[in-house]
Design goal:
By secondary structure, the protein is of the alpha/beta class. The protein folds into two domains: about 5-180, Rossmann fold, CATH 3.40.50; about 190-240. The chain is built from ten helices and five strands. The protein has helices at about 5, 15-35, 55-70, 85, 95-110, 135-150, 170-175, 190-200, 205-220, 225-240, and strands at about 40-45, 80, 115-120, 160-165, 180. Strands 2-3-4-1-5 form a five-stranded parallel beta sheet, with helices on both faces. Strand 3 (about 115-120), helix 6 (about 135-150) and strand 4 form a beta-alpha-beta unit. The structure holds adenosine-5'-triphosphate (ATP) and magnesium ion.
Length: about 240
């Protein structure tokens, strides 16, 4: 998981991620600047793990806030929810937590906007009704609460960013309400870019860096951007402990 505190020093790399980020930023800004109250409610980023969904969503928020020139530090325009922490077994509790998230947001919109609700790893919470398991009333209850909240969103002031690596588990009632963007396997270019960036930060010397680049091009097991980061870290430890 990307640490929010570290994010401000981390650039968003790669053409794909930057294009997605720009599209979302211009949409949110358009709806905000033109007071479009019934526009697009939000987007859903989906795709296999470790390919930059969370970091891109956080960068969208950072850029919106910077471009709008908000006085508050950027986190204030965001309500971040790790969906794994939202689910609760007690009857009615999850529903209440979802309501509270939006209540907090709407309260904030009285002073600042736009407010961006980020629901990270949403699959854990909004599993599909078509999945074949017997769903308990508590689950359908919070699903209903969630899409009711989406329907009531004022898009001039509020926007939702949802991420998931199991989009097949997300209920269609939610998917239909959001614009979906798939994060594909990363290109070799962005992998190399990330490798160079991380290696430079860790002060790995250039020769080693070059050999890592070659290894990355040849190694099919380094698939995701998280794999690239882990690969660099392993090399880094080898080098540090060798001396
Ligand atoms: N475009 C990018 N630029 C810079 N770093 C990136 C980029 N994409 C991914 N990363 C890095 O790769 C790691 C994985 O990214 P992230 O956590 O955003 O993936 P994810 O798709 O949300 O994964 P998961 O599905 O497991 O939640 C992070 O540490 C992040 O900093
Ligand atoms: Mg993530």
């Amino acid at each position: 998981m990307v640490r929010i505190e570290e994010l401000q020093d981390t650039p968003l790399l790669g053409t794909f991620h930057n294009e997605v980020c720009s599209k979302c930023v211009s949409l949110i800004k358009h709806q905000y600047d033109n007071r479009i109250t019934d526009g697009i409610k939000g987007v859903l980023f989906y795709g296999v793990p470790g390919n930059g969904k969370t970091i891109t969503a956080l960068k969208v928020i950072e850029r919106v806030v910077t471009e709008i020139g908000a006085e508050d530090i950027w986190q204030k325009n965001m309500i971040f929810t790790d969906c794994g922490h939202l689910a609760h077994h007690k009857y009615g509790e999850t529903e209440q937590r979802i309501r509270n998230v939006f209540k907090r947001g709407q309260e904030k919109t009285k002073k600042i906007s736009p407010i961006i609700y980020m629901f990270d790893d949403a699959d854990g919470l909004f599993i599909t009704r078509d999945w074949g398991i017997k769903l308990e009333a508590w689950y359908l209850g919070h699903l209903n609460v969630f899409f009711h909240q989406i329907d009531n969103l004022n898009t001039a002031k509020e926007f939702i960013l949802l991420t998931s690596n199991r989009v097949d588990l997300i209920d269609n009632a939610i998917r239909d309400r959001l614009y979906e963007i798939e994060f594909p396997d990363p290109s070799i270019d962005v992998k190399i870019e990330l490798l160079k960036y991380k290696a430079k930060k860790l002060k790995i010397n250039e020769d080693i860096q070059k050999s890592m680049e070659t290894a990355l091009r040849e190694d099919n097991s380094i698939k995701s951007l998280r794999d690239v980061e882990n690969f660099v870290l392993m090399k880094y430890l080898d080098e540090v402990w060798k001396t």
